[in-house]
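Dear colleague,

Thank you for sharing your sequence with our group. We've completed the structure prediction you requested, and as agreed, I am returning the results in plain text so they can be pasted directly into your records. Please verify that the sequence below matches your submission; if there's any discrepancy, let me know and we will rerun it promptly.
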Amino acid sequence: MSRGTVATMAAVLLAVTGCMTDGTARGHDDGTSASRPGGPAAGTSQMRGITLPSWSRTDYDSPAAGRYLRDIRATGARWVTFTPTWYQKRRTDTALHRTEETAGDTSLRRIVRRAHSAGLKVMLKPHVDLPGDADRAEIRPRDRDAWFGTYRRFITHYADLAADTGVEQFAVGTELAGVSGDHARWTRVIKAVRDHYDGPLTYAANYDEYEGIPFWKELDLIGIDAYWPLSATATHDTARLRRAWEPIREELAAYARREDRRILFTEAGYVSQQGATTAPYAWHISRRTGNAEQAAAYRALLESFTGRRWWAGVCWWMWDDWPDSGETPAKLAYTPHGKPAEEVLRKKWGGR
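Please find the predicted structure tokens below.
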């Protein structure tokens, strides 16, 4: 998830809905599992995670970092995801580069250590973004060989950092639909990552991308950013949202069997705005708060999937923005912190 994702669609949705009222990868439904030990999917364990993204070089060194990690742990979460991000200027470029919005390596190492000290396991999920409102799924480099060469250097840099800091799981990419159909090049990327990092690997496919990924069997887990629209109108009816999940759940169970991999929701989340479940991928849907809808969506997802042996868990998007960095007011943002959705997590995950 990037701040600019589906900005155009979000603007349309804002107009339409502004006044709305209403361990490891391989697994089977019979519970058998195989592959290397460790990670959230070992046996039948399920990730209970929350993402703490960064938007600045110094975010992870913020004085708020320790408090955020303690608060995440207090929900009952046992995992946290960090998202260092590099950028490319245009969709067709072949070069990736750091900016002042890229988390510094020193701060990233420090936040991993702090997470471990707080009793949290870590998934490192490096992102590539475009500037402004452009969607990373639109990246289509004019020279694929050059782009993948640059990408391989970018991702193995973080694979080294993950290995050095004891990160428990690693994502080789996120929502790169414009290039994710390239089996041969991604296989080479994954091989390079495995040469640098020994832990479980996934790729975070968008919910409308995952069926087109040809390289799941090269990875340990199927990763899906689970932003399926669940309703045509705003609702805080948990039973209605659970019913909306039923056909999706059946499709995912069949897909997990077919690919012989468990499915991890590498992201899932809902803004606390009315209409959130109509477009969970959108940062801006309504100017009206929707705490009840956000909480119902959290409850429906967990009640729909928890305990399914092919499901490896969820990493919610996202915890608080850093002080002075939030573009969306906290009361309308994805964070569940201080809202009924946080209480849902505490109840479902046994937090305190």
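Summary note from our side: The first strand starts at residue 26 and ends at 27.

Kind regards,
the structure core
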